[in-house]
Amino acid sequence: MRKISACTALLLLCAAWPTSAQVADTIRANGSGSAVSMLKPMAEAYQRSHRHVEIAIGRPLGSSGAIKALLAGALDLAVSSKPLTAEEAAKGARLYAYGKTPLAIVVGREVPATDLSSRQLEDILAGRMTRWASGSPLRLVLRPEGDIDTRILRDFSPAMDHAVSLAQARPGMLLAVTDPEATALVARTQGGVGVAGLASVLGDGHPLKVLTFNGLGPTPALLASGAYPLAKDIHLVITDKATPATRAFIDYLYSKPGRALARKAGVWITASAAPPGMAP
User: Fold this and answer.
1) Per-residue model confidence (pLDDT) at position 19
2) Which Pfam family, just one, is annotated for this protein (predicted)?
3) 181-228: per-residue pLDDT in tens?
4) Are residues 54 and 27 in contact, defined by beta-carbon separation less than 8 angstroms?
5) Mind listing the pLDDT tens digit for each residue in 171-183?
6) 24-99+233-269 CATH choice from 3.40.50.10710, 3.30.465.10, 3.60.21.10, 3.40.190.10
């Protein structure tokens, strides 16, 4: 049997022992449903080219829940559809603009409609329109009162604001807390209709039909032009304790490859560049 030299043995031992490059840097991320749907393919692409990095993304906690977890040290990165509160900022949250995704009106594929006017949406919310043109029943899926999607509808017009109030006050309504819950509930509800960020609609893969709104499709291009009026913000939120691995991933999100994946996910990127201090 050939003897192994001391030098060779040492090399073999070093090869078997995990190095710092082989130990994963874990980035814990979460946030609003639409933002998480956008983030998942970006995280997968980043991990393919950064084998030592693991990006852990669970079920969406929502913007407020993710920011709370971030401030508690349970997350490294939150992706939010709402601005920070004064209290969140005072506790150390730092918000950076990234982009917007259209708030889409979605229905089950069996629904005959292809477009809703603002007046029809008001009638649906107010309970005046309860059937589709074919005569089949219509079931509205609501979002919670404090949800950003509800706020976007309220801000559209005074008439829409009043219609939302009527919907929120009506008993027995179907309710979905996050975008993924909304897309799933609309898809499995006969005659269902609701709203969700386009990034979730594209990423969740449920059998849905996206309606035009006043004849306009919810596309990033129409959103960027100012033609499509319903939009959800996507912000990145960290604290000053963000790790170098987290900052490097954020820098990637603003890079050319990251921006291309975001556009494919249904996001209009509004930020021109990564915030200073992100790149390692």
Assistant:
1) 41
2) PBP_like_2
3) 999 999 999 999 999 999 999 998 899 999 999 999 999 999 999 999
4) yes
5) 999 999 999 999 9
6) 3.40.190.10
From residue 198, alpha-carbon distances to 136, 149, 227, 265 in Å are: 26, 12, 16, 8
Angle in degrees, 0-180, between the axes of helices 158-169 and 148-156, rounded to the nearest 10: 140
CB 35 within 8 A of CB 66: no
Tell me the C-alpha distance between 25 and 109, whole Å: 42
Mean pLDDT of the region 64-86 = 96
Q: For residues 160, 166, 169 and 170, what is the CA-based torsion angle, rounded to 10 degrees? A: -120
Structure tokens at 110: 């069996």
Q: Do 101-231 and 24-99+233-269 have the same topology in CATH?
A: yes
Residue holding tokens 């820098």? 251
Classify domain 101-231 at the CATH superfamily level: Periplasmic binding protein-like II (3.40.190.10)
| pLDDT value at 230 more than 50 | yes
| Tally of helices (H runs) and strands (E runs) in the chain | 12, 11
